[in-house]
Specification:
Rossmann fold, 9 helices, 25% strand, binds adenosine-5'-diphosphate, binds magnesium ion
Amino acid sequence: MIRFQRLVKRFGTRTILKGLSFEIQEGEILFVLGTSGTGKSVLLKNIVGLLRPDEGEIWIDGQEVSRLSEEQYFPIRKKCGMVFQHPALFDSLTVFENVAFGLRKHYRLPEDEIRTRVRECLALVNLTGIEQKMPAEISYGMQKRVSLARTVAVEPRILLFDEPTTGLDPVTTNAVNQLIFDLSRKLKTTSIVVSHDMHCALAIADRIIVLDQGQIVAQGTPEELKACEVPLVKDFLSEALEAGLEEGKI
Ligand SMILES: Nc1ncnc2c1ncn2[C@@H]1O[C@H](COP(=O)(O)OP(=O)(O)O)[C@@H](O)[C@H]1O
Ligand SMILES: [Mg+2]
């Protein structure tokens, strides 16, 4: 359903993505792992059209999108829900209005339907009874869940997560991971999670791709990756093992 073919992205004389080719099946959760500065966020931005590749192709639902005009890109962007590292809620709006924001902007729905949809989305992320609270009144972990609810409210077919658990404590990290898994399965979305956390990837990914300096150095199912001999992957795996030991999980 999403396919990259020899994708190249340069900034000036620096080549960031060096000819990436891979695909993501419908309904799959794909983790893209890599050290920081390797081009993970650039990759996500190429999907939503915030950046355009210099070479290669991006196919989404059978359509090559990389050379579409801004206007032609609009329906593609509407299929994608992007969840950023920081919740970035509107401080002056209640939780309810934050989740309702996209619905009000893109759909003409009667008020009672908006109310129902907002409640459903908050329930999906296990939040009830906080609709009238302001973002500053709830914890960071809750804000993160509200931002997830806001993204799924407009029913994207594709969910893109940029480092969703970076900077969170282990308990909240597990909760957000579980949520990504449950939401993706329940809503049957195709999900790409950019991360440097192998522990999370092993727990919820269908497939994992490991990027190093703009190239794919390993890919496979969690089981396949566990047996991988690539040095960077082995580093990630030993970090994952430590994280698991800390939580008493492995
Ligand atoms: N708009 C931009 N203009 C110039 N360089 C950029 C731009 N966006 C990202 N880069 C560079 O591309 C590289 C990869 O960035 P990024 O995708 O954000 O890394 P990460 O894997 O940590 O998400 C970095 O060296 C970054 O400085
Ligand atoms: Mg990034």
